[in-house]
Amino acid sequence: MTVATPPAPTAARPQPSKPRKRHDRSSQQRREALALVVPSLVPIVVFSVLPLLQGVWYAFTDATLRRNDTADFVGLANFGRLAGDSFFWNSFKIGIIWAVSVTLLQLVLSLGLALLLNSNLRFRSLTRLLALIPWAMPPVVVAIMWTMIYTPNGGPLNAALGAVGLPSDTNWLGDFNTALPAVIVVGVWVGMPQTTVTLLAGLQQIPLELTEAAAVDGASAWQRFRAVVLPALRPIVVSITSLNFIWNFNSFGLVYVMTEGGPGGQTMLPMLFTYLEAFKNRNIGYAAAMGVVLVIVVVLLLFGFLRSQFKKEA
């Protein structure tokens, strides 16, 4: 007779630690994220952050572009000199007039053009292509073309004005009263395509059912624009206005080719003033202090503008 022996008790298997697995998985995910982010951060740090920090450092030195020059720390001397520089602050006032005027006119005219291009026009594709032509032209070519248009003797603008009996001897870029408005017109013309395309893309995202329902309710075209189109475009308008203001305030190439800041400093934009101080007068430290002040002012202006817009949306 055999007696069945009970099975030997097996040792309890150690249960895997779930928190430990989750910890290992999250650590691996962090390493993978770092491996993806670091290669993109390196060029940003090397080509953007380090030059920016170097520029800020130069603002506190007496660095120049002279040969074998040494940059010595001078503290806030450059900023103290800048506070009493009336030429710089006059150029700053001109820069604000230039940037605000060009940005607002670009927005209004581009919105009208985008509404027109969004309608059922004949040859709509050709019209959209023609609207992009200023965007495809290099700024130097635009500046030379408009300088020829503004030529006081025999220019097409004065010739057209003379043909309708208006004064035809205006020196548009050489007169104190017309130089700044003349370059503002060129700035608006050359920047309109980008704003128009952005607004046109926003208009095409608005559902037709909304405007059709408003039309069925008896809303006029202006009421549909105010109640339906404009609120839908508001985020795009805020974004493109902010970007255009930064771009227009910092750009000076167009004005430099057309007037070089003249006549009598009437078109001397602050970035052009800074450029001339750095590379014509060779005062890198003083020009860097101008750049630091301009960046701070632009950031504060944008912060106030965006904050007011976000408060309206809240």
Automatic annotation (TrEMBL):
ABC transmembrane type-1 domain ranges (all copies): 92-305
Keyword Transmembrane helix applies: yes
Compartments (UniProt record): Cell membrane
InterPro entries from the UniProt entry: ABC_transporter_permease, MetI-like, MetI-like_sf
One BP annotation, GO: transmembrane transport
Topology of this chain in the membrane: Multi-pass membrane protein
SUPFAM superfamilies: MetI-like
Region (Disordered) location: 1-26
Keyword Transmembrane: yes
Key words, A-Z: Cell membrane, Membrane, Sugar transport, Transmembrane, Transmembrane helix, Transport
Cellular component terms (Gene Ontology): plasma membrane
Family named by the database record: Belongs to the binding-protein-dependent transport system permease family.
Protein name: Multiple sugar transport system permease protein
Native source organism of the sequence: Terracoccus luteus
